[in-house]
Write a structure and sequence with these properties.
Length: 179
Amino acid sequence: MAASRFALFETPIGPCAIIWSERGVCGVQLPERSTGLTRARVHRQFPEASEAAPSEAVRPVIDGLTALLSGERVDLSFVELDTRAVPEFHRRVYERTRAIPVGATVTYGDIARELGSVGLSRAVGQALGANPFVLVIPCHRVVAADGKNGGFSGAGGVVTKLRLLEIEGVQTSDNLRLF
């Protein structure tokens, strides 16, 4: 795989990072407790990535992510993703998850059924837990079948998931409103 780059950028929820290659975005990192911790997480997940100024191709993605985190209804379907390191089943889960509109939620079971069997729900959850493209692949919009929040592997866990849903206008509580 060709060398990747990353850049930190400010958002309303703190400093995020974007990782990219010549083929597209390789990952998005939500803020950790500090810029240094965000940078360290990028280095752990993408050890070959070097820090650089955002490329012209990446600048609109950063603008879209920042707008989304500001509460704007932003369609990120234009973002080219470099999925070479992503297993095929995960790609299928991510493709379906990417279609969830801002302000909506679906269940792990909904995605599993669309992929062939509700028995795949756990595998869907595992794929989303490994999602390197947070926000572009909006895994925070996937909830448990009982309307509970479900998990979230990003920095801050379920608290961050709820905050992202609230930014998008989803009513959050122990029982999420499903659209």
